[in-house]
Design brief:
Strand content: over 45%
Shape: globular
Radius of gyration: 23 Å
Number of helices: 5
Length: 448
């Protein structure tokens, strides 16, 4: 039990700068003579941050602390670690020139397998309108085999703890790395990441949830034949050391950058966005992968009518076999509750069902409107909008998979719909989908 108290006490040290200097949600702007004055991002009360999640700042605005999920960040549950306890927090300092320095920590004790899991990051941010960032990170932690899963880890853990759903699969990753992001001119963004990591295959250490629900074993399912019923257990290797280099280039002509506050700047353009992704890996396995994506949001009328599309494709060049960790994974999840209605997600595919170590081509399109069917009966498109989505993907050795989805969105927070999936012309069934981010819903309720 003393381990739990030690973890919590160490994490509470993050609060010292905020407590010593004094905390409030109404503070003055940080003075500067060379940079334009911008509105400081508002914080919340420290007790509200601890309970609901959020960020709190000192009276001068120089020190800040964030606990993204509040008290929910103290505990987690998955079938590999069992229940784990420990904090996740971010603490930072902003100087008079609006440069930010912050540290992020996650420190957990995995009860079922009796292991200490910890990861952290040190970051520097330029003034928000300059969009530059440098990060050093490392640690030992449990993560999805997919480096960039469609469901966030917090959402996956919630699905596991309540419903016993664990179609995502976990490994233990020990890593250290360096990440940078910076713009080139007005229209090009560059992100680069160099890291070393050690992967370790894991088995379930807990069999049921608190409600008695049994989860799947911690082995990914891949499609074996032409139909979805022919899924097989992945029998390749997971364990190994790798050196990785990732490069991402984004180009979008005519970007307009809007500064909302000293921590928030959003970019907008009506032109297509081109993204080039390159990954190189050396170690137990050797590979290089390339992907090109093109996406755009097109506003069709003065109302809420919008057409969005995303087209992507790429390939992997490998020497010998390749670990599933380095395959290309689609944004796929059959879990019915998601945090957002992502355009790129396949809702009729399991997480790794059509993952590939060869090549792929996928396309997504969505039309949303406040004058479609049900929405045409309402006068306010902010209350009810409707959408129609189409998705298709083709990977070698498998038939093309495509989906159609219709749904409605209430208050732009809660969406639910029905999807139908096909493998070529063979129907594989229908599914109910819903997306709701509880934290966004809470903030919307508070702002009323």
């Amino acid at each position: 039990m003393h381990k739990y108290f030690l973890i919590i006490i160490c994490s509470l040290l993050f609060l010292l700068p905020v407590v010593v200097e004094g905390q409030t949600t109404a503070f003055s702007e940080i003075p500067t003579s060379t940079l334009p004055r911008v509105r400081p991002k508002q914080g919340t009360k420290w007790y509200r941050m601890l309970y609901d999640g959020g960020m709190t700042r000192t009276a001068s605005g120089t020190w800040y602390m964030e606990i993204p999920q509040g008290i929910n960040d103290l505990t987690a549950m998955n079938f590999v670690d069992g229940y784990s306890i420990g904090p996740h927090a971010i603490a930072g300092f902003m100087n008079s020139r609006r440069h930010r320095f912050e540290v992020e920590e996650t420190l957990r004790w995995a009860v079922s397998r009796e292991a200490l899991l910890a990861k952290g990051a040190l970051r520097w941010y330029s003034p928000v309108e300059q969009a530059r960032m440098i990060e050093i990170h490392g640690g030992r932690h449990t993560e999805d085999i997919d480096h960039d899963p469609t469901m966030s880890m917090s959402q996956s853990l919630l699905a596991t703890g309540i419903f016993g759903w664990n179609h995502y699969k976990l490994l233990e990753r020990t890593d250290a790395g360096f990440r940078v992001a910076f713009p080139i001119g007005n229209d090009i963004d560059v992100k680069a990441h160099a890291a070393w990591e050690r992967r370790r295959e894991m088995e379930n250490h807990k069999l049921t949830t608190i409600f008695g629900t049994h989860g799947q074993d911690n082995v990914p399912r891949l499609r074996l034949g032409k139909t979805a019923s022919e899924l097989k257990l992945y029998d390749g290797e997971i364990d190994g050391d790798m050196a990785l280099l990732n490069l991402e280039l984004n180009y979008q002509f005519g970007q307009q950058h809007v500064v909302f506050d000293d921590m928030t700047c959003l970019s907008h353009s009506t032109y297509p966005r081109f993204t080039l992704l390159t990954d190189v890996g050396m170690g137990k396995w050797h590979f290089a992968s390339f992907e090109l994506r093109i996406g755009q949001d097109i506003h069709l009328t003065r109302g809420e009518d919008q057409l969005s599309y995303l087209i992507g494709g790429g390939g992997i060049y490998k020497h010998g076999d390749l670990s599933l960790t380095d395959w290309h994974h689609l944004d796929a999840s059959r879990f019915w509750w998601q945090k957002d209605n992502a355009l790129s997600r396949f809702v009729m595919l399991d997480n790794y069902e059509l993952s590939t170590d060869c090549s792929w081509l996928e396309g997504h399109a969505m039309w949303s409107s406040d004058r479609m069917l049900l929405s045409s009966l309402t006068r306010n498109g902010m209350f009810l909008t409707e959408y129609v989505q189409a998705h298709i993907v083709k990977v070698p050795a498998h038939r093309a998979h495509w989906e159609l989805q219709y749904g409605i969105a209430l208050l732009r927070i809660w969406t639910f719909g029905v999807a139908v999936g096909f493998d070529n012309m063979t129907c594989r069934g229908a599914a109910f989908t819903m997306s709701l981010d509880i934290s966004v819903a809470k903030n919307a309720k508070k702002s009323k």
